[in-house]
Amino acid sequence: QGPVCTKLGLKPGQRLTVKGKIAPNAKSFVMNLGKDATLLGLHFNPRFDAHGDVNTIVCNSKKVEEWGAEHRETVFPFQKGGTAEITFSVNQNDVTVHLPGHQFTFPNRLNLSVFDYFDTQGDFTVQSLSWE
Fold first, then answer.
1. DSSP state of 109
2. pLDDT 10s digits, 8-31
3. Quick one: which of 30, 61, 108, 113 is 20 to 30 A from 69 by CA?
4. Which SMART domains match (predicted)?
5. Which domain holds residue 125?
6. CATH number of the domain where residue 15 is located
């Protein structure tokens, strides 16, 4: 478990940038963005080799104990032992995920007007967090 941020206050038009290092023997890591730990607007989960997925990014949303439908991205710009910079841009109806050389959007299924919560888990060490 990495740092947990609360009271971020990210609104449409704002973004959060996470920079960090991926473990040399990484299997997967997670970044969660939402209202709190039980209401996750975006569960971002790059998997090197986990849960039957290889080099796949799995995204989802979670409302209390209920997960939504998984969304899979096959573009995988991460390297074990490398560094990563990921930016989450909050829009009215979705979140745009900016990766090195690729971006995609994930719908704001919970209709959150503010993203207050962020955490990281797994084989990733946060080096810096910035938001604007």
1. T
2. 999 999 999 999 999 999 999 999
3. 113
4. Gal-bind_lectin, GLECT
5. 3-131
6. 2.60.120.200
